């Protein structure tokens, strides 16, 4: 069986997660679910990034130990992912002993090979971003180029990773593997970053202790980014899963952390003698009025409140449909409500409701054997299959929003098929019984196919449609590419509303 390994970043438990974080995890989940649907053996990993000075300081300020501070926040992450129907196979906490052991092992391996050495670090550190910067990299106010907050001058004995040694090998790898960094804009940025020259990276600190100790030198803790990226191999190493899933197929990350994933992490892997991940996909940000959502800006949207109000599937649909992967996308409550009303309540909800209602009313819920039917019937069936095939192509190419749009185009076609064939008229004419049976059968089949195709985006809606159609919950993409799987005497269920319309006050 072919395998597929996808990861999200591990999130900082420093602030409450917002809908931007849920965006990243939802994309990864949709891809993971699609791959399972297509028959791959999938491993999907997410987690929490718990070490570092910032966490230690915040915990101290609250009179807690770092773990006392992060434990409930990490529980909140896990709850949130459940609410969002996230199907991760494992969850790595960097504070877990299993992770600490792997980080120390990799550190030792690289130190033994000579690419980690001890030196003196004097430099500029941004605590909120856990990033070191040189004078040249600071913004025009002398602040962190990422978050634009002041940096601190630090000077201490430290371990260094010989990153400079890997510049040429990285450039070569990036040039020989065009798919390594996606999209191209990020790839070009990274190429010019490396061409400006790479400095060795300071990878330990002595000024605080909330982190993984350097092996045999416990005064030092390992730099949080060196620690964090290793999470991607923590659950695999020293078991057969390593062979099976490494190198990872996709590290999905936000655009501002592409540098850590395409330069530092691959260089670490080269130094440790391990293969590099196949792809790093840098997605854009979810913005509100053009500004990245962040707690300090006060423009965050709380995902829990949103799920309580609209349900996870509606939000997943919105995020996957509205935002082209790789570009920034705007989150707006009005746009969300519009999508729910037009696409979910109207297009999808009505198609299911009308279809089941008519099968109940005209054929006592029983599908009758279809015949070849009219040209219109044939064209409709062909369109269902073409849609499923094109969907597979788009999903394999990770063009998620195009795939969603394609399915909704077909849902629109199915609604139009009802208007064109007018089953209520056919039902009045005894001579049209067999054509009525064809139309109702084709509609039920098209809904069965739609339930497979939307499963990666809206898993619970897919399930509800299948319950109403009374088809098994087991999902396979191959079943969406075959028309006519419903038995001729199949009995469907009663229609139930999928999405209530949301009333908006004028
Ligand atoms: O960076 N829109 O953690 P993090 C889209 N711990 N994505 C967003 C977003 C937004 N408005 N805000 C944040 C870290 N994200 C590190 C990762 S991985 C080894 C270590 C995304 O909690 C962001 O782009 O600050 C990033 O990919 C992810 O959330 C985690 O952010």
Radius of gyration: 26 Å
Total DSSP E strands = 16
Strand content: 5-15%
Gap from first CA to last CA: 54 Å
- Name the strands of the widest sheet in spatial order: 3-2-1-12-13-7
Largest sheet: 6 strands, parallel
Instruction: Name the structural class.
Output: alpha/beta
Shape call: elongated
Mean pLDDT, nearest integer? 95
The helix content, as a percent range, equals: 40-55%
- How many helices? The count is 18
As residue ranges, the low-confidence spans are none
Bound molecules: ligand ME8
Report on this model:
- The structure is a single chain.
- The protein is of the alpha/beta class.
- It has helices at residues 19-37, 53-61, 66-83, 97-112, 167-176, 184-195, 224-229, 241-245, 258-272, 303-310, 312-322, 333-363, 375-396, 400-421, 423-426, 433-453, 459-469, 477-480; strands at 3-11, 41-48, 90-93, 116-126, 131-133, 152-161, 181-182, 201-202, 204-205, 213-214, 217-222, 250-254, 280-283, 286-288, 291-292, 329-330.
- The protein has a six-stranded parallel beta sheet with strand order 3-2-1-12-13-7, with helices on both faces. It has a four-stranded antiparallel beta sheet with strand order 5-4-6-8. It has a three-stranded antiparallel beta sheet with strand order 9-11-10.
- Helix 11 (312-322) packs across helix 14.
- The N and C termini lie far apart (54 Å).
- The mean pLDDT is 95.
- Residues 9-12, 20-21, 23-24, 49, 228-229, 253-254, 256-257, 285-286, 292-293 line the site of ligand ME8.
């Amino acid at each position: 069986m072919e395998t597929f390994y996808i990861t999200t970043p591990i999130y900082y438990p420093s602030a409450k997660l917002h809908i931007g974080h849920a965006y990243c995890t939802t994309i990864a989940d949709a891809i993971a679910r699609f791959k399972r649907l297509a028959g791959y053996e999938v491993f999907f990993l997410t987690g929490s990034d718990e070490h570092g000075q910032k966490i230690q300081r915040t915990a101290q300020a609250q009179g807690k130990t770092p773990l006392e501070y992060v434990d409930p926040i990490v529980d909140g992450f896990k709850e949130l992912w459940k609410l969002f129907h996230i199907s991760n196979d494992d969850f790595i906490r960097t504070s877990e002993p299993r992770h600490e052991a792997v980080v120390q092992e990799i550190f030792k391996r690289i130190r033994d090979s000579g690419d980690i050495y001890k030196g003196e670090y004097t430099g500029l550190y941004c605590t909120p971003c856990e990033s070191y910067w040189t004078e040249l990299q600071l913004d025009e106010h002398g602040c962190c180029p990422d978050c634009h907050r002041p940096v601190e001058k630090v000077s201490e004995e430290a371990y260094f990773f010989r990153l400079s040694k890997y510049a040429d090998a990285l450039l070569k790898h990036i040039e020989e593997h065009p798919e390594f960094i996606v999209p191209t804009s990020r790839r070009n940025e990274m190429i010019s970053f490396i061409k400006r020259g790479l400095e060795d990276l300071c990878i330990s600190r002595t000024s605080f202790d909330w982190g993984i100790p350097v092996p045999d030198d416990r005064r030092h803790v390992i730099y949080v980014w060196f620690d964090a990226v290793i999470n991607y191999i923590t659950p695999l190493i020293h078991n057969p899963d390593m062979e099976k899933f490494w190198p990872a197929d996709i590290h999905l990350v936000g655009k501002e952390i592409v540098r850590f994933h395409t330069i530092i992490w691959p260089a670490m892997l080269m130094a440790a003698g391990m293969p590099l991940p196949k792809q790093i996909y840098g997605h854009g940000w979810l913005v509100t009025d053009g500004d990245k959502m962040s707690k300090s800006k006060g423009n965050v949207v709380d995902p829990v409140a949103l799920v309580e109000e609209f349900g996870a599937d509606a939000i997943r649909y919105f995020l996957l449909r509205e935002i082209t992967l790789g570009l920034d996308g705007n989150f707006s409550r009005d746009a969300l409500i519009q999508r729910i009303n037009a696409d979910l309540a109207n297009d999808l909800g009505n198609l299911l409701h009308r279809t089941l209602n008519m099968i109940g009313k005209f054929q006592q819920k029983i599908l009758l054997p279809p015949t070849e039917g009219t040209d219109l019937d044939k064209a409709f069936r062909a369109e269902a299959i073409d849609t499923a095939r094109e969907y597979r192509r788009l999903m394999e190419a990770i063009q998620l929003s195009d795939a969603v749009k394609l399915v909704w185009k077909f849902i629109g076609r199915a609604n139009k098929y009802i208007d064109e064939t007018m089953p209520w008229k056919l039902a009045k004419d005894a001579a049209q019984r067999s054509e009525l049976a064809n139309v109702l059968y084709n509609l039920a089949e098209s809904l069965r196919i739609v339930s497979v195709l939307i499963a990666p985006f809206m898993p619970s809606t897919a399930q509800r449609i299948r319950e109403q159609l009374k088809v098994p919950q087991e999902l396979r993409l191959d079943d969406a590419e075959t028309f006519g799987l419903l038995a001729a005497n199949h009995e469907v269920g009663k229609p139930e509303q999928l999405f209530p319309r949301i009333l908006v006050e004028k």
